[in-house]
Amino acid sequence: MSEKVHSSYGEELGFNSDEEGYGRDAIDDVPPLPPDTDPELAESSLEAHGGAEGRDERPARGHAREASPPLVTNGDAEYREEEAGDTLPTDMSDTSDSEPDKPHNGGDVEKCSAAHDGKVLLRQEFPFNIDQMFTMIFTNSKFNLELLAARGTTDYVQAPWQAQGGLKCRQISYTLGLTSGPIGPKEVQVTETQVMNKCSKPGMLYSIDSTSENAGIPYADYFSVEVHYCLQRVAETKAQLALYGSVKYKKSMWPMIKAFLEKNTMSGLEEFSRLLESRLTAEADSAVPAARKSRRHRRVIPSSAAEVSPAASVLPAAARARPRAPG
């Protein structure tokens, strides 16, 4: 029987000669059952000897892994699959930049699979729902537009998230003003590639790698700037935001120039993280109801004291007790 099944469907099910022999041996090893044995007991006995396991595993082996299309990245930005965790939700049709995918309602704590290399720029908890904070930072929200304006960003163009090879990625371009003094470039053109890692779970975790390529400044093609965003759920209305930054060099350069570039680049990243932290803190403070912030305790006046007139309350006790003059 197994030979007939193999000759008809073996290639489609992914059978080979070893697996076929294993399945046949596993079934042959099952001891014969008495003729009056209950069918349910017979099935459970087969499962105990590995028969059910063999049936479940064979079709799974037949699934070939689909080849991922090339990821559109910028410069050296690429996805390292060995660092990936679980896959994103299967519904990747939503490329809107205003709402994330359907939230993940699992009770397990998700862990970021990224290496978290580089300098820790920010690690702080904020009183926001994690999906709300993702929307604030990674969409054309009012918060993000105000953050860009405060940073001196112009010509901002943000593409929607697109699914590629089980990931979500997009590109952003903008012009960033520089404070390099009277000498040197006054602005830099930035093309930023953002990749959402597979370990991301809406409602639980957002792991995003950002790689920025610069133009319009000296040695712009010698290096790229990498920032990792890690948003993790702490509670229903609390999330932790962590930022890690580093400079990746594509060409060798003089140590003095390299040190100068890295110092200025990291200084810019630290300034951005401080600005982001202050803006998030201000947004959290503004969300507190005004009534709670302006609430004052009113002093309760006893009823006996309330009956005394204001004029009598300021007179000395002797004046209030002075007897009336005879008429």
Automatic annotation (TrEMBL):
- Indicate the principal place this protein occupies in or around the cell: membrane
Q: Name one Pfam family in it.
A: VASt
GO cellular component terms given for this protein: endoplasmic reticulum membrane; endoplasmic reticulum-plasma membrane contact site; plasma membrane
| Swiss-Prot/TrEMBL keywords | Membrane
Compositional bias per record (Basic and acidic residues), positions renumbered to this chain? 50-66, 99-112
Asked if the Swiss-Prot or TrEMBL record annotates the protein with the keyword Membrane, the reply is yes
One GO molecular-function entry: sterol transfer activity
Q: Which domain of life is it from?
A: Eukaryota
User: Which residue ranges does the record annotate as region Disordered?
Assistant: 1-112, 286-306
Localization annotation: Membrane
Keyword Membrane part of the UniProt annotation: yes
Q: Where is the VASt domain?
A: 117-288
GO biological process: what's one of them? intracellular sterol transport
Q: Name the PANTHER family on file.
A: GRAM DOMAIN CONTAINING 1B, ISOFORM E
The molecule here is called GRAM domain-containing protein 1B-like
What is the protein's species of origin?
Answer: Trichoplusia ni
UniProt lists the gene as: LOC113506371
